[in-house]
Amino acid sequence: MPDLTPRLVAFDLDDTLAPSKTAIDPRIGDLLIALAERVEVAIISGGQLAQFRSQVVERLPAASADLLSHMHLLPTCGTQYYLLTPAGIETVYAHSLTDDEKTRALAAVEEEARRLGLWASETWGDILEDRGSQITFSALGQKAPLDAKKAWDPTGEKKNTLREAVAARIPDLEVRSGGSTSIDITHRGIDKAYGMNQLADATGISLDDMLFVGDRLDPDGNDYPVLAMGVECHAVEGWEDTAEYLEALIPTLPVR
Q: Which of 3, 87, 135, 142 is deepest in the core (most CB within 10 A)?
């Protein structure tokens, strides 16, 4: 259990709340609602809003509008921020890349992937995706099955090599490792620590009163910036770990 009693608990999405690009298990849905009865709940991921909607929002059990209002959605590492309201998903802000930044990012990642022999000829969906505030490269396509994604780069070497090559091409933009087969490109300074700071500003809750749960808290992982900024973190290896942790944590938190 954490040393603090958090007022906000934030989660990574893929491989923390659900397998990559997959809907949450009903067990996680129930736990997220039980958690929202006690604290603010946030999800921060490199994924786009459509993934949050299909993986989480549409899979939550029935709950009151007041309860859902305590859930914060931060796609593309916090460059977009949404709240759940009775009228649906409400935009707090969305900071998009310019057309020029998108063009240069798309060119750099495709050209470097081809040069390094990492541009697949047969994929499950698009390799490149414009998420507005983020360009994402998915080596095997956006809809690749989990087994194929896990087998593509088990050590992370391919992804890290590509990330470094792309970063050298577009030094004015941020290039980070995303999921198991992905590279994310955003404005500089954009990572999950940015998203946590946005949450602090929006909610008035100090970072010292927040807890983050993620599966990639290693120094090369996209959850690591949250750990590096000093937020209390808990590492998991999959959604089952997260569920077990929440089942132990939730009873220790007072109902609001």
A: 135
Neighbouring CB atoms inside 10 A of 224's CB total 20
Category of 104 on φ-ψ map: left (φ > 0), alpha (ψ -120 to 50) or beta: alpha
Question: Which residue, 98, 58, 91, is CA-closest to 74?
Answer: 91
Q: DSSP 3-state assignment of 173?
A: strand
Nearest-angstrom CA–CA distance, 194 and 253: 26
Cα 118 to Cα 14, 115, 150, distances in angstroms: 22, 8, 15
- Tokens at 243, concatenated: 């569920």
Residue 42 — left, alpha, or beta (φ > 0 → left; ψ -120 to 50 → alpha)? beta
> Which amino acid does the sequence have at 129?
E
pLDDT, averaged in runs of 10, over the chain (256 residues): 86 93 95 98 92 95 93 92 90 93 98 97 94 93 90 92 97 88 90 92 96 92 92 96 98 93
CA 165 vs CA 110, 114, 115, 140: distances in Å:
11, 11, 10, 19
